[in-house]
Amino acid sequence: MAMPLAYQTSPAAPEWLNKGDNAWQLTAATLVGLQSVPGLVILYGSIVKKKWAVNSAFMALYAFAATLIFWVLVGYRMAFGDKLLPFWGKGAPALGQKYLVRRAKIPETVHFYSNGTEETPMTEPFYPMATLVYFEFMFAAITIVLLAGSVLGRMNIKAWMAFVPLWLLFSYTVGAFSLWGGGFLYHWGVIDYSGGYVIHLSSGIAGFTAAYWVGPRLKSDRERFSPNNILLMLAGAGLLWMGWSGFNGGAAYAANKTASVAVLNTNVCAATSLLMWTCLDVAFFGRPSVIGAVQGMMTGLVCITPGAGLVQTWAAIVMGVLSGSIPWFTMMILHKKSALLQKVDDTLAVFHTHAVAGLLGGLLTGLLAEPALCRLVLPVPDTRGTAYGGGAVQLGKQLVGALFVIGWNLVATTAILLAIGRFIPLRMPDEQLMIGDDAAHGEEAYALWGDGERYDATRHAPVFLADDALQATQSASGARGVTIQL
């Protein structure tokens, strides 16, 4: 029987290409992209004060675009290319067709023991390198967008424009290569299934560090920073939640059983964490908070990420309970008692929602990783959590991996910001901070008539009701509406 035409090989569809895997990986990557644009663009633009809506949304949009260009120019191969150092790859462009149409592989450098035997087998997904470059870009981009949440409402936009490519190349790529691209933590067996350390712990620590060096918002903004549109904030949060199915489902590098488990666990943990956070809000403050529910959703998504495809679903519920309570405690209780946490103005509490939740997820993965699930996807054989006979070894590896990510991000972020600060002020001057978007961009989020716009009779024709009943009145400082005389 002849093979159906759709499954026959051709120059565009070689025998190693699995069209289902390729389609899923591209879809998963796009779902992750939607988390940033428009997801976090909308969330940031609506969760801040009205005067910072444009600036906050633009910081996310700019980071997404700038990351893509520097990723394909040099960043991808610094994170996933041939080994340069135990924690860094050789930077090179990912632009040529010869490189992009060949079969994907991770890591690119095979690591051998001293006796010549292969230490960790190479993973070779059934799709082209172009798909993998695109997928991994989305993770790099969202990491920097998440980091931005710590410095909203005061960072000089020009300093941010310089910071994004430098932090991508000198901080993100180190964590990505060390844990995913064939670095020393990858071969040692530290588990980070989909970025609890590479993305969330690093963005939380780097964001907190950046908030320290950039400095605080105005006192008036710190005291009152109410969202300008909670409904739009929920829309952005919804895109973030749904996009996480691609985030964790795509980390299996195939449309397989691991992807299915990861997607289910992701949503179960997020829902559990949201409910836990909401219950704590009701118990301690007497009423549920919509912003709190979003924070709980976020911590659940972050916590499950390092083990989404590696733990059983009952474990995802346990992780959701803890991710909805421990970050809640650090944010609502510990934060108010810590002089350091009070001093550093972390605008959207990225330290609590990402650093704390990411570290928690990494440690819980070391405890609860199920051996059979680990065998399906992890490169290091016989990986298992402490609860399954792994002893304290895996927890120790998880802790060491976390300490490396924390230390590198503290040092690299500090060095980058101090270097930028020699040429560009990191913080906007107080005069601009008083104004916000109009000073930073010459634009405002909501241009409604009457909001500083003078009434022009030549452009706004009068409206006549019975006996000229409706008359527009204009004050000396400009119109603020109309007066209806009955």
Automatic annotation (TrEMBL):
It comes from the Eukaryota. InterPro entries: Ammonium/urea_transptr, Ammonium_transpt, Ammonium_transpt_CS, NH4_transpt_AmtB-like_dom. It is a multi-pass membrane protein. Gene3D superfamilies: Ammonium transporter AmtB like domains. The keyword Cell inner membrane does not apply. It is found in: Cell membrane; Membrane. GO terms for cellular component: plasma membrane. Keywords: Ammonia transport, Membrane, Transmembrane, Transmembrane helix, Transport. One of its GO terms (molecular function) is ammonium channel activity. The chain crosses the membrane at residues 23-45, 57-79, 132-152, 164-185, 197-215, 227-247, 259-278, 290-308, 314-334, 355-378, 398-420. It holds the Pfam family Ammonium_transp. The keyword Transmembrane helix applies. Residues 23-446 form the Ammonium transporter AmtB-like domain. Involved in ammonium transport. Belongs to the ammonia transporter channel (TC 1.A.11.2) family. This is Ammonium transporter. It comes from Phoenix dactylifera.
